[in-house]
Amino acid sequence: MSELVTGDAVVLGLRPARLPSRALAAAIDLAVVSFVFVLISVVVGIASATLDEAAVAAITVALFLLVLIGGPIAVETLSHGRSLGKLACGLRVVRDDGGPIRFRHALVRGAMGAVEILMTFGAVACIASLVSARGRRLGDVFAGTLVVRERVAARGSAALPPPPPWLAGRFSQLDLSAVPDELWLAVRQYLTRMHQLDPGVGGSIAGRLADELVARTGIVPPQGIPAAAFLAAVVHERQARDARRAFAGVSPAVGAVPAAASGSPAASGPPLANAPSGDPGTSRAAGTSAASGSSAAAAAVPGDADGRAAEEPGAVGGSSGGFAPPG
After folding, report:
1. What is the CA 112 to chain-centroid distance, rounded?
2. Between vectors from CA 221 to CA 237 and to CA 326, what angle results, nearest 5°?
3. Whole-structure pTM value
4. Alpha carbons 235 and 249: distance in angstroms, whole number
5. Residues 6+ apart with CB under 8 A from 53
6. DSSP H helical segments within the chain, as ranges?
7. What is the largest CA-CA distance in the chain?
8. Does 156 score more than 70 pLDDT?
9. What's the N-to-C CA distance of the chain in angstroms?
10. Burial tier of 29 (Cβ tally within 10 Å: 0-12, 13-18, 19+)
11. Which domain of life is it from (predicted)?
12. What is the DSSP-derived secondary structure letter of residue 278?
């Protein structure tokens, strides 16, 4: 498997697509585009039956450029590299560094595709894909793109390191709504692989990610705190908030247990009913013990629930080992 490596020596978990899957995706895209082209050509031909041959030829060339070349360019630009054929085959076009493509990448790919796919019936594209180590055709080489596989076998994700104990809960009032998902993913990938990176390279990546988080959140990290520790604390805070939102709907069901316990036969009136009526002390003692037992049972369940809720955020990020930034 040929892996992608960024300029910061970070290995990306992307698998380049090979010729069979790319050929199948291209065949699906060509079938769809050709059907649309024929359909539009028939409609335009009926509408332009009274025009001369020069006008019909100009319209045909315009349809060829707009549908067979402009259509795939527009689709790849709007879908960020996922045409209908690539979506069916689980493929996506990305930049060499793993980022999403833009219009200029799709334009170069579409212009080169008209030569190496349409005009040569895919022969040039097949030869270039077989020769390339990552299965790229000429359009990918000139555009600086790569077709990768999105649907791959799932792997066990590495656990995130916990933040330092003195930073846990430090950012509970931080506004994280402006942080995009792409930045969260980059921070998570760095934290799971920071001990595999060169210390100098890892430190520069951590500093850059921390600066971007500061720009998005508007908070200044404490003085003397390593950038990796700051990133771990902020990610831990986000995980804690997600856990509270996920388990927020469980609390009403847990709170209903004390009411059921207080209404059970063991916590209600039988001890008072069986007590002799002539012994008020016994009746008062039985009533007091039943009430105290009922209140203790009612207090025990919320206490356990609160205890579990209090332990869960700690379980997400807490650890007896503490945080060890890369040395």
Report:
1. 32
2. 80
3. 0.46
4. 23
5. none
6. 19-47, 53-63, 70-78, 84-89, 103-113, 123-131, 138-143, 181-193, 199-217, 227-246, 251-262, 270-274, 280-317
7. 118
8. no
9. 30
10. buried
11. Bacteria
12. T
Q: What is the pLDDT of residues 102-119, one digit of tens each?
A: 999 999 999 999 899 988
Q: Which helix (H) or strand (E) holds 180?
A: none
Cβ atoms 76, 87 nearer than 8 A: no
Q: What CA–CA distance (Å, rounded) separates 239 from 244?
A: 9
Question: pLDDT at position 280, please?
Answer: 43
- Distance of alpha carbon 235 from alpha carbon 316, whole angstroms: 10
Contacts of 22 (CB under 8 A, 6+ apart): 89, 91, 129, 135, 147
The length of the chain, given as a count of residues: 327
Q: Note the pLDDT of residue 152.
A: 55
Could you tell me the two tokens for 161? 């390191």
Distances (CA, A) of 225 to 147, 185, 207, 233: 40, 22, 11, 11
Q: Which of 15-19, 156-160, 278-282 has the highest mean pLDDT?
A: 15-19
What is the C-alpha separation between 279 and 282, in angstroms, rounded? Answer: 5
- The answer to whether 240 touches 288, Cβ cutoff 8 Å, is no
Please name the amino acid found at residue 78: L
Indicate the DSSP class of residue 165.
Answer: G
Strand order in the sheet with 91-95: 15-16, 145-149, 91-95
Cα distances from 209 to residues 161, 212, 215, 239, in angstroms, run 16, 5, 10, 18
Name all contacts of 106-109 with Cβ < 8 Å and 24+ positions apart: 106/72, 106/73, 106/74, 106/76, 106/77, 106/81, 106/143, 107/73, 108/139, 108/142, 108/143, 109/73, 109/76, 109/139, 109/140, 109/143, 109/145
